[in-house]
Amino acid sequence: MAPSQACGNSVKGRLRAAMIALVEQALVDSGVTADLRDRYVDRGDWLIVLVHPTDRIPKTWLLTRLVPKMKALLDERNAGQYYPLRLRLVIHPGDVTCDDLGWFGEDIDIATGLLTASALEQTTAPLVLVVSDQIHRSVIRHGYDGVDDWVFVPLPRVEVAGEECKGWVHVPDEV
Description:
By secondary structure, the protein is of the alpha+beta class. The chain contains four helices and nine strands. 33% of the residues lie in helices and 22% in strands.
């Protein structure tokens, strides 16, 4: 998840603190408590949130509970703000590896590539959701209750480690 702004360091610090607080509240309010995820991986102006695979948090919950909660909190936080917070959220399943320096692996590279795709710069919406092709194939296209497949549009292919990755984009403000 990443705020998408160009501003001075003091403002970036406030936006970063707001992002962390908003992400934490959205996760907890949607049922993704600290015991169901690892500590955040801090990448400066964005976070990696690793949710443990569990039946308690099906992938559909991330789409039907977390995303709407994050959107509501973001709208509430941004009301009347001179520097509104903008977030990009990527949902991608996969396996990761950890060593003394932190988490790494191809699936983090894929999520990062989707998060940083230049095509996402075309919108100024406060929240942009990107899902990997794996999430689209296994969840979204099946139209589970509360998941609208028609709101996702293909993201131009992103190259990660020499391979093309496909993602799908939904901008809640543009529905």
